Automatic annotation (TrEMBL):
Protein known as: Phosphoenolpyruvate carboxykinase [GTP]
Sites where the protein binds Mn(2+): 227, 247, 294
Enzyme class: lyase
Cross-referenced Pfam families: PEPCK_GTP (PF00821), PEPCK_N (PF17297)
Alphabetized UniProt keyword annotations: Cytoplasm, Decarboxylase, Gluconeogenesis, GTP-binding, Kinase, Lyase, Manganese, Metal-binding, Nucleotide-binding, Pyruvate, Transferase
Organism: Goekera deserti
Binding-site list for substrate: 79, 218-220, 269, 385-387
Endpoints of the signal sequence: none
Amino acid sequence: MTSVTTPGLDNAPTTHAKLLSWVQEVAELTTPDRVVWVDGSDEEWTRLTEQLVAAGTFTRLAAKPNSFLAQSDPSDVARVEDRTFICSVDEADAGPTNNWMDPAEMKSLMTELYRGCMRGRTMYVIPFCMGPIEAESPMFGVELTDSEYVVVSMRVMARVGTAALEAMGTDRPFVPALHSLGAPLDEGQQDVAWPCSTTKYIVQFPEERTIWSYGSGYGGNALLGKKCYSLRIASVMARDEGWLAEHMLILKLTSPQQKTHYIAAAFPSACGKTNLAMLEPTIPGWKVETLGDDIAWMRFGEDGRLYALNPEFGLFGVAPGTGWDTNPNAMRTIEAGNSVFTNVALTDDGDVWWEGMTDDAPAHLTDWKGRDWTPDSAEPSSHPNSRFCTPITQCPILAPEWDDPKGVPISAILFGGRRKTTIPLVSEARDWNHGVFMGATLSSETTAAATGAVGVIRRDPFAMLPFIGYNAGDYVSHWVETGKGADAAKLPKIFYVNWFRRDADGGFLWPGFGENSRVLKWVVERLEGTAAAVETPVGHVPTPGSLDVSGLGMTVEQVESALAVDKDEWRQEIPQITEWFEKFGDKLPGTMWDELEILKSRLDG
Ligand code: GDP
Ligand code: PGA
Ligand code: MN
Ligand code: MN
């Protein structure tokens, strides 16, 4: 099929020459039945959601307005890190933590996969912008996809459609992002509810700032504005242009004295970002407002402070564990409707349910695989990485300045992970480089957000292991350089938190969720110089009296265990950190080895 015969190709609502020729080239390669330019209108949304219901991909929820349940193919439920590649020209630029293939080799391999891959389907052209379209340099992208689920989800997660396309004008740069399910349909062939391929590739070409994704419909693999653009490609742009693209939430904290601070926090996937971003403080007089729950782009402002912006437009949150007790603001956000739920359970009255939403499970559900489910069933009703996809504007505690193109000035950065032992509830870095060391050595147990084993401890630098678009050693250097070039007094202070430490019986030592406001309070009091701390080998940790635990019902011993810095436990980290650093060869900045020496000598002192 040629361009002349592909309906829709010739009535493009743009004269952007580069965009037009790329769309034509991809249509010729993938041979869709038609091309549709996504305008982002309500009429389009109605048409697509009706189509998805008719195809069996979506079940309309009777109990929530404009909301749908999707049950994916059981093999397509998470990011596929082993199928994700950084195809830099030079292998060294992908570094020791990414999969790499020669870009020309990858392109020829994937071109054969893409050949005819949209046969029997529609190719959608989704113009989008990450961050506000009114920004000084708007960050445009265009995703080509053969998935209606992707179009409907992208409309929630990014600013899509006519407004973005018009702002692109005739020649503004954009990131081309090609996506296919890899499931062509022959004439008369019956489609399945969740088409995908057993062959999957999630590929970034950093020099060309281009994304090629094939074979998966799952959010992190298929909504290309999110991880692929706003983290992997943006981290490369950020290195080149002197800013930071990070896997961080952004929140605004107001004290009873009406002082406000903006805080960013990097935790690996499924380790508490969305929850902390929407926290409902348990301590009187403190207020949290949300700006972002997954990604922060940070640049220095004219005043020398570091400003953070959330480039996304929606929330793609982990469903299990989200409930009225743990995250009531997420529940309120979802209640407003306009959401796509993936791989959760369906109630008999047309609502969604998942483990942790309420204390008692409904007597009967349809589980994420479409089977009858009762509380006696052997498996959970929802996949552990099931998700809600919801407009961020529905969040009842959204900070009004959340979409200010200049961002908000960050006072503190928290790093954190899921560790049963060793890492104290909170510690404060001595200075920027010590904070960078905390980020570079961050470790966490793996979760269901990526395919593979769950619960295995791995190093996850800056919670960015799956998302750094270049050499991780260069990435650590970029963080060191960011601090060098700045006025130290204006840099955010860095902290390391761990909500997931366990007691001898395996229970959480710290109640977490809304009670994490007590840790935020200590952080702010450290910024303001009013909270006490003890200096330990790993940083400043609250004194027994300086962390507000009033009314918590924890014993002194429990609080001490949560805060403990056990030298023996930490000594066991040293060989692991050493082995980790050795992977980077001479790319790792010497300051990181210096920090390791400081840690060792403090542990021996
Ligand atoms: P994200 O993927 O980093 O945004 O993480 P989420 O905020 O969605 O949380 C992932 C999982 O961790 C959910 O099941 C949460 O219920 C759980 N979680 C989040 N915060 C806490 C906490 O403070 N303590 C405990 N024990 N679990 C938490
Ligand atoms: P998460 O986002 O960090 O909220 O889990 C999705 C992901 O990282 O895969
Ligand atoms: Mn994430
Ligand atoms: Mn999240």
